[in-house]
Write a structure and sequence with these properties.
single chain; mainly alpha; two-stranded antiparallel sheet; 7 helices
Length: 189
């Protein structure tokens, strides 16, 4: 716990020490802390899902021994470094959708997670991106929420919806992914 407290202070999300800040800066500082914690969760969940998709591609193209054993081979490392690492999450998903039975709801959730991750990873204020702008001009000083499936992602409800959806995707990729039964499976994307 001591190390976590120290890290939280280093990365400036130690909200329990807010009284050490000047009174007028407390609310904006807490808002930034909240956004950073949610941003970290989005990037972390995205990374987990991307890794699970990569694992399934590796299992498909290099079947046999478990992946830990295969990591010791040059063949597997080359495949990972020169193919898997160069694919985007959406490319991995497209291949898996062709080879495995992936429900539309899971695929669309993964695509929404990808879009949200891109927004928060590439813009400090994702609400200013065109994708989140409302038609017409918003009222002055009225913040434009970054929505995930109808919820402002920077609220408890939005974060909970996101985490629940990610849990569903991870559960599906770990336990429910089943091979399609057809003859026309392409070898490469």
């Amino acid at each position: 716990m001591k190390e976590l407290d120290q890290i939280a202070k280093v990365v400036r999300v130690d909200y329990w020490n807010i009284h050490e800040r000047e009174r007028e800066s407390r609310t904006p500082v807490l808002e930034v802390m909240k956004r950073e914690m949610i941003r970290g969760e989005i990037v972390g969940q995205y990374t987990l899902i991307d890794d699970l998709l990569s694992t399934e591609l590796c299992r498909y193209f290099l079947p046999g021994k478990n992946l830990i054993t295969q990591w010791k081979t040059k063949r597997f490392r080359r495949f990972n470094y020169y193919i898997i690492e160069r694919l985007y999450l959406t490319q991995k998903l497209a291949f898996l959708k062709d080879v495995y039975r992936v429900p539309k709801s899971i695929a669309s959730t993964i695509e929404e997670i990808n879009s949200l991750r891109n927004a928060v990873a590439h813009a400090f204020f994702p609400e200013n991106l065109r994708a989140y702008q409302m038609k017409g001009r918003p009222a002055p000083r009225k913040p434009i929420p970054v929505r995930y499936k109808g919820e402002d992602i920077f609220t408890v409800a939005g974060a909970q919806r996101f985490v629940d959806d990610c849990s569903g995707v991870v559960d599906f990729l770990l336990w429910k992914l089943k091979r399609r039964r057809h003859n026309n499976i392409p070898f490469l994307l």
